[in-house]
Design goal:
By secondary structure, the protein is mostly helical. The chain has a domain at about 40-85. It is built from 4 helices and no strands.
Length: about 110
Amino acid sequence: MKIFKISRSTIYNYFNDWEDQGLVSLYDKKGRGRKSKLNNEQKEIIKEWVKENPKNLDKVTSRIFSEWGIKISSDTIRRILHFLNMSWHRIKRVVPKKPELFCINPVP
């Protein structure tokens, strides 16, 4: 028990589950992890809002807070978009180059 750093009751639970269900009992079960703050309908609405305003996700987060009272980050919106098979990339601003100076040779 000290070797595995688990309690005696946990070991007994493993053995009881093994006897009842076999190897399947040792697999991770569904339901682990944090539940989503948003349901699927809200995620689809967010998808439309991002399509309306793709340049600024902060506006989408503030709209989510004002409409539903749910505070989420722009990283969460990116994860939602990834889940919906979309991607979001930051628009890179390019500084325009200075125009080159042309030297015109006079015609003789």
